[in-house]
Amino acid sequence: MALGIKNILIIMRNFNDSLIKKMERLAEITISSLQLGKMARTKRCLALAEELLIKGNNEMKNAITNVYLFSVSHYMEINRLETSRLLPIALHKEYVKQINASGV
After folding, report:
1. Rounded-to-integer distance, Cα 9 and Cα 5, Å
2. Tell me: the pLDDT tens digits for 23-51?
3. Where in the numbering of this chain does the DUF7674 domain appear (predicted)?
4. Domain tally for the chain?
5. Alpha helices in the chain (DSSP H)
6. Residue 52 near residue 60, CB atoms below 8 Å
C-alpha cells in the first residue's frame, strides 16, 4: 500500500501527541520504507521533512533536526546508505551541521 504525502499528513494529524511524537512517527515511516526498499515512499517522506524544515517555525525546525533527521540519518549510517544521495539538499546540509557539531 503506497502512502502519499497527503496520507502521511493525515496519519500525522490523527496523532494527538506532541510535535516530537509526530517527528518520531515520520522517522519510523521513513525507516520502514527504507527497510522495505520502497524508495518512492522514502523520498516522499524525506521531501515532506525537508518542506517542514524549510517552511516550519523554529520549533518545527528543531524537531525535524533533532528528532527526525537524527533518527533517519543514524539508521542510514548503520546500514551504510549514502546520505548524500538520499537526503534532499536542506536535510543534507542539516545532517552535515550535526556531524560537524559532534566532532566526528
Report:
1. 6
2. 999 999 999 999 999 999 999 999 999 99
3. 20-99
4. 1
5. 5-14, 19-35, 39-55, 58-63, 70-78, 83-86, 89-102
6. yes
Can you give the pTM of this predicted structure?
A: 0.80
Which domain range does residue 57 map to? 1-102
The total number of residues shown for the chain amounts to 104
The tens digit of pLDDT for each residue in 8-22 reads 666 666 554 588 899
- Is 90 in contact with 54 (CB distance < 8 Å)? yes
All 3 cell numbers of residue 17?
Answer: 501527541
Residue 67 contacts residue 23 (beta carbons within 8 Å): yes
Q: Are 27 and 72 in contact (CB under 8 A)?
A: yes
